[in-house]
Amino acid sequence: MEIAKNKEKIQEYRERARKLVEQMTLEEKVEQTLNWAPAIERLGIKAYNWWNEALHGVARAGVATVFPQSIGLAATFDEDFLEEVADAISTEGRAKFNMQQEYDDTDIYKGLTFWSPNVNIFRDPRWGRGHETFGEDPYLTSRLGVRFVQGIQGHDENYLKAAACAKHFAVHSGPEDIRHSFDAIASKQDMAETYLPAFQACVQEAGVEAVMGAYNRTNGEPCCGSKTLLQDTLRDEWGFTGHVTSDCWAIKDFHEGHHVTDTPVESVALAMNNGCDLNCGNLFHYLKQAVEEGLVKESRLDEALVNLFTTRMKLGVFDEKGKNPYDKIEYTVVDSKPMQELNRKAAEKCVVLLKNENNLLPLDKKSIKTVGVIGPNANNRRALVGNYEGTASRYWTVLEGIQEYLGDDVRVLTSEGCHLCRPKSQGLGMDDDRISEVKGVCAASDVIIAVMGLDSGLEGEEGDEGNEFASGDKPNLNLPGLQQHVLETIASFGKPVVLVLLSGSALAVNWADEHIPAILQGWYPGAQGGRAIADILFGEKNPEGRLPVTFYRSTEELPAFTDYSMKNRTYRYMQGEALYPFGYGLSYTDFEYNGVKVSTDRVGEDGVDVTATVKNVGKMAGGETVQVYVKVCREGTPNAQLKGIKKLYLKAGESADVKIHLPKKALGVYDENGVLQVSGEVKLYVGGQAPDARSAKLTGKTVTEIPVTIA
């Protein structure tokens, strides 16, 4: 029994924590509620900084494997692989921690409490932090979130490998520039159907050790001091027993931004009394005054400290060195060859093939003498890594990956083409100062690979250094700067063109969809990204990614960014036709579904099993994502929603049987009061894509529809 479920062991740790807390003075207790908790030498407590990040690799503390950004990992649609990546991340985290402890380094980003994953719903493509998430769908986010947490925390019966943190609880997805004062209004129905499921799954299935509140208010309450969220939902309804941390400096927003309190003392009292145990920031210094004035009971402060020290005990840091099996992880595993190989595999699995007219891809290097690689992301390291990133010992941009793959056999010409978002590349030059070079490269090339998109300087968190759009959110879905102009110039030469998009979110590449024969979505593919994309461009690997977000045609079809109603948002509620739909992605091979059936057409308490035989009928090995969608046949219900996934890997000509279980609750939807309703007629859809007309048009395939009735 792993520690997250080992109630007897957890109770033992809580008792040890209580005895430790009993010996502290009020001043000592207060200091331990800050993320930079100082040492208490008389009690044998070392200094500890709770703030560490591991969104897609151990971040901000030197060299570590930089995996693809979370949105890219989500495109794998592969639960097992997400846990494998998270396990690798926590292995490196332990290795770095063991080394740092040896040299008494207890600085920020040096602990074992990783504030990941981000399981917020990417409800609007303009949100700058959306690439930190697993996409727009609550089911996919839940499955990947659970497995990421399990990979981070490990499966030892006595100790956590590291502590994961589900953030930002619970209704948080922009706008960035008003997050410190914004009130996200969400109906009970949207809360239950969309915003809460991933958090609930992380708590109840994965036993996530920590939960972080959001900056904004939700339905009037600041999230880091919300009785509804932190007490009624998280603790009472879901039975969460870990610790709650604030987002960084969020508690001062109570009086400075949200104006729900008047003073810092009132703010810390609101947070602590409603279940926030740890303050990322310094405002909890006021807890001493709050306790002395009777605004916070010392018993509540003790409870918070027991939660915090229980986590540290689960991590084994209070036990004799060597008793914890993770103490044996050596620093040399960091950035090792196996880690680099796993990272390259991750980058390959993330890539989504959006278009491949007349099978232009894969390219045959034997028939090419000169390749032109053009675009601001062709040689842009920042477009590999996203945000909350570590430092790789070696980066492979798309240009470098292509150069390595082709070697001396094919000439590679290149041009930046344009700045990522500004009108010129050279400060003293004229606008569009690289266009002649673009034309020269195109004229001399047999094939052109255009590498466009965004990087974390354009989309990211509010206040990130170098953010060109100030808040981090996107003003629209267009290619920024002169990129569209450069792309059209490239196309005008009549050569075969492949567009590689590196971005953390959907872009409205409508013109490219009409005029460019092949398009790849590479996300922010990590330090090995360029090699992985080269492997796919030239057919060494088969693209298998699927879109975890909808690619819209424009922002005009979207509701206001500040509107948190799910109406007309994401594939589940949109009425229009997507440019590229959720769940969509092409392959170099082809898969055929046969014998699709259900275990019963009258579904009772045991749910229903969906089975099928999937065969690779193409000429190349590849990965197929089997997807099961559910449409409740009542007026006012969402479009068909993803409720089951299974990743298969089949050689050419190989087939496999697949079974996906749907519990009864997966066939229901929530009513306006947030109550699950499971009754009536339901349609199941089984195939390699969503059951929408646009997916059928793009793939030339349809999915199997099976009606069932709720018994």
Would you summarize the structure shown here?
It is built from 21 helices and 24 strands.
Can you put this structure into words, describing what you see?
This protein is of the alpha/beta class. Helix 1 (7-22) packs across helix 12 (298-314), helix 5 packs parallel to helix 7 (197-204) and helix 15 crosses helix 19. 29% of the residues lie in helices and 17% in strands. The chain has 3 domains: 3-331, Alpha-Beta Barrel (TIM Barrel), CATH 3.20.20.300; 343-549, 3-Layer(aba) Sandwich (Rossmann fold); 591-710, Immunoglobulins (Immunoglobulin-like, Sandwich). The protein has a 6-stranded mixed sheet, with helices on both faces. It has a 5-stranded mixed sheet with strand order 16-24-23-18-19, with no helix packed on it. Strands 3-5-8 form a 3-stranded parallel sheet.
- C-alpha-based Rg, rounded: 26 Å
Number of helices: 21
> Strand arrangement, largest sheet?
9-14-13-12-10-11
Beta-strand percentage? Answer: 15-25%
> What is the number of strand segments?
24
The share of residues in helices is: 25-40%
CATH C-level name of the largest domain: Alpha Beta
What is the structural class?
Answer: alpha/beta
Question: Could you name the key traits of this structure?
Answer:
TIM Barrel; 5-stranded mixed beta sheet; 6-stranded mixed beta sheet; 21 helices; Rossmann fold; globular; 711 residues; Immunoglobulin-like; alpha/beta; single chain
